[in-house]
Amino acid sequence: MEGGSNASAGGFILTGLPDHPWLEMVLFVVILFCYLLTVSGNSAIILLSRLDARLHTPMYFFLSNLSSLDLAFTTSSVPQMLFNLWGPDKTISYGGCVTQLYVFLWLGATECILLVVMAFDRYVAVCRPLHYTTVMSPGRCRLLAAASWLGGLGNSLVQSTFTLRLPFCGPRRVDGFLCEVPALIKLACGDTRLNEAVLNGVCTFFTAVPLGVILASYCLIARAVLRIRSAEGRRKAFNTCASRLVVVTLFYGSAIYGYLLPAKSSGQDRGNFVSLFYSVVTPMVNRSSTL
């Protein structure tokens, strides 16, 4: 495997924002603050979901899964970001880059699926309340959660392995804060058309399709909410749905923007800032917007 043999001889350089070095310390403070909020908030949700018997419901089961996912998702990327932003050393070992690639892609794809499952849970709760306990039984909830994690893992194994088979030539300077598939494709010196086609196809399945399903489900939820006689109940339901849709759109929109555009033509600064949304911002605000 040519890509593996010549890349494993040394590490990679995560360039970050080479044209805006003055922003590095600002981003360090902001990202550190967001990370601490993510860790504390999601840890609290996990503990409360386990300790409070009143929260042993499908919604909080999935929310606990999402919180665990967000903790792992941010931890797979943020510490390396902070290390590179703090000082002049921007390197990451080959093993560290490969590990980050597999783990980050696994958890990101898992979240794409889990958000669809959570939207389905809310759809059944609002639109089919009499069938809710039957449809969302404990066994089915565990099955849906397991399918989300395994589906994300399968995607990562295929995508990451396929990317690492590319031959990497010349300076291994990754345009961005992370070792991600689009950034590594840009480093390849061989024909990457097949890799880009696979990337577009898989990312459409994991981002654009789920986003469409979630938007459709919330349209049905909104129609059901309009039938609520209480004005206060309608207002509360719409506010919660609106906040949830903002976060979902932010996550999927930034992922689509960063992954579905042609890897060779994507702008460096654009990709760098967009990656911060789905890797740092959305895990922080996910917990506060769940219906």
Quick take:
With 291 residues, this protein is mostly helical. It contains 11 helices and 3 strands; from the N terminus they run αβαααβαααβαααα.
Helix content: over 70%
CA-based shape: globular
* Beta strands, count: 3
Structural class by SSE content: mainly alpha
Taking all Cα atoms into account, the compactness measure Rg is 20 Å
What does this entry look like structurally?
It is a single chain. With about 290 residues, the protein is mainly α. Helix content is about 75%, strand content about 0%. It is built from 11 helices and 3 strands; from the N terminus they run αβαααβαααβαααα. It has a 3-stranded mixed beta sheet with strand order 2-1-3. Helix 2 (about 25-50) runs antiparallel to helix 4 (about 80-85), helix 3 (about 60-75) packs antiparallel against helix 11 (about 270-285) and helix 10 (about 230-260) runs antiparallel to helix 11 (about 270-285).
Task: Present the secondary structure layout.
Blueprint: H1 2-7, E1 12-14, H2 24-51, H3 58-75, H4 78-86, E2 91-92, H5 94-127, H6 132-135, H7 138-164, E3 173-174, H8 181-187, H9 193-225, H10 231-259, H11 268-285
Parallel strand pairs: 1-3
Antiparallel strand pairs: 1-2
